[in-house]
Amino acid sequence: MKLPAFDYVAPASLSEALAALRNNEDAKVLSGGQSLMPMLAFRLLAPKLLVDLRHIGGLSDILIDGMGVHLGARVRWCDILEDDRLATAQPLLRAAIGHVAHYQIRNRGTVGGSLAHADPAAELPAIAVACDAVVEIAAASGTRRVPARDFFTGPMSTGLAEDEIIFALHFPPWPEGRRWGFREFSRRSGDFALAGIGLFFDMADRRNANSHIAVFGVGDAAARLPEAEAALDGAVLDVAAIAARTAEVSGDIHASAAYRRALIETMTERALADALARRDH
Predict the structure, then answer these.
(1) Potential cystine with 52: which of 30, 86, 129, 135 (Cβ 3.0-4.6 Å)?
(2) pTM for the model
């Protein structure tokens, strides 16, 4: 299908981009366009103006320091996969992004686009929630930071206002020796996951501590599983069963709720096995 008619601007600065959003009631931000352009083609959206972020400095930066990992909003999936520093600085993120669709999509899709699109089956929102990442948002009045767990409010829904732009995503430091695992299941390689699990835990006095388990692809948004996390900290053996039982799950034309619960249990078991077998990062 042909795209609907729209005006187009590519501002040279963040302030110009924010002004364009503020001065046009029906405008959309264009980052990588991997999700936006198909939605335009299918007439699911028909904005009057596209505000392209390609010329704004700093949005493609990957910064790693003692404060953690900073991903600019226009960082692409291929940028993450090609940055070897992330193999130690944020290995769970890097592993999850390796599951995103296919090469062509990984070459176009961006951090900001995925966060704003907020697909419940997408990998990045799940890892952001699992790792206590923080979304940095720019507005005319200044910037604000929102924990990822509060940013996603439902399927394809976020706390981003129409006149705001996602500037960056911040991950806290990743300690040496942390155990982690990531598993997802899809019908075909590159399809959206019917269910997925991202998890990690630390070791303290030979015991599991600081366990984080996030599930995605099964409900309205990626979510942590606190009861399963508590069980993992307490070395309870049926962590996977608890994860499957306590996750909020819905069914659709792709998979029933019962099937997704079974997938959660299996994916959790496998991710935990991977984490326990991991002796490096």
Answers:
(1) 30
(2) 0.94
